[in-house]
Amino acid sequence: MKNVTDSFVSLGHWPFAGSFGFNTDILATNPINLSVVIGVLIFFGKGVLSDLLDNRKQRILNTIRNSEELREGAVDRLERARVRLRKVEMEAELFRVNGYSEIEREKWNLINSTYKTLEQLENYKNETIQFEEQRAIHQVRQRVFQQALQGALGTLNSCLNNELHLRTISANIGMLGAMKEITD
What we know:
Elements: H1 2-11, H2 26-159, H3 162-183
């Protein structure tokens, strides 16, 4: 191994007189080596780098294209949703207007039916009052008749003696007998 390193060390002492050799001076050879390496990388890596960049470009373009398609789909759905919203708003307005007119109609129907019910109740009340008046008049008449009858019976009983009483009974029996003969 010592021979190999010695041979490289001894290369540094070669003369520069038109022959090919290694320059071991790092400061002088570094930019040259870097430019050679970069040149080799560019020459051989140009295709690979170009392919990588083309693939990346295609992926970016595909992503942009997909995004545009999604955006167009979203815009289309948004427009359809706006149309549906306008339609629903118009239907809601129609329902609201119809609802108010229906409420107004139902209110008047309820008012009319309430008036009719009140009229019927008034008629029932008047009929009940009239019936109660008739019943009260009938009861008063019955009491008056009973009192008059009791008064008449009292007067008759006080005025009638036995003889008059027997003659009245005989007369009544005779009238009943005559009535029976007429009906037979």
